[in-house]
Amino acid sequence: MAAPLRIQSDWAQALRKDEGEAWLSCHPPGKPTLYGSLTCQGIGQDGIPEVTASEGFIVNEINKITCLDISSGGGLGVSSSTDGSMKIWQASNGELRRVLEGHVFDVNCCRFFPSGLVVLSGGMDAQLKIWSAEDASCVVTFKGHKGGILDTAIVDRGRNVVSGSRDGTARLWDCGRSACLGVIADCGSSINGVAVGAADNSINLGSPEHTPSEREVGTESKMLLLAREDKKLQCLGLQSRQPVFLFVGSDAFNCCTFLSGFLLLAGTQDGNIYQLDVRSPRAPVQVIHRSGAPVLSLLSFRDGFIASQGDGSCFIVQQDLDYLIELTGADCDPVFKVATWEKQIYTCCRDGLVRRYQLSDL
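Above: the chain sequence. Below: its structure as tokens.
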């Protein structure tokens, strides 16, 4: 029988400070209770605290959360970690439901399929995996990338998915047969972010040079957006594979998202958020710059969007309002990812915490 471990309720905050301490205790069955403490010896260059334990306790490893998502019904959350695992948890209170293990090294991205019962993940092991959220089993593994997978997108209901990798390629996959349907783009530069969106009727996506596979489902009239390390934002027809535009920004693009059938957002390493119109992409509609910290995630929300940056800032921009709503608490630690369900906003941060914000009516 495992011995129950109790720890100070605000241990995460306490151990963010140099020489900060948190108490813990353990009561092995039939033995006296063991009391001890954890002490922060400083913060490493990667932002993870160096923690030691008093006699009788051992700190095996400290992991950081890299990504998160919330299921379509709002009931479950999934988060990925640098230790190669993911966790499924109750979105209302954070209670752990399942642990998904199978990746080697960091899991960079995770997201629910529209059903809310299946999870897609991509890791530094160059593998893309599909998991059951109900029993934690890995049902499909895709192999073919030569470098770590940095982002994914799900096409329609999820018969097909897209991945972007450090190897410079974006690939389309058939989930039913666990096969690669093709390399959509090979740009010779790391693809940091991908997004799939339905195109407005006025946008010419071109025609495919070859008849698409019958295993391609829902790719017609879709755009694929690629945020690239070489300062380029690339848009192409998902089914046609034909270029729509190539935009050069101020620095490496980290993330991207569609706001509508012709409007999109992309964020750069030097803190710029570009809003572009696919119909006339040469000049941005606007450029938002709040700080020089990297823009790490962008998410369409209501009539605007949510952005998070490497300095801990996370904010909501409403298109019809002249002010921002700040989401506080990260305290200078990078906020890697944002997910929403109705009026709930969830963020994951380098400090290892998932934060949940409840919005009143905007």
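Residues 11-14 form the longest helix (4 residues).
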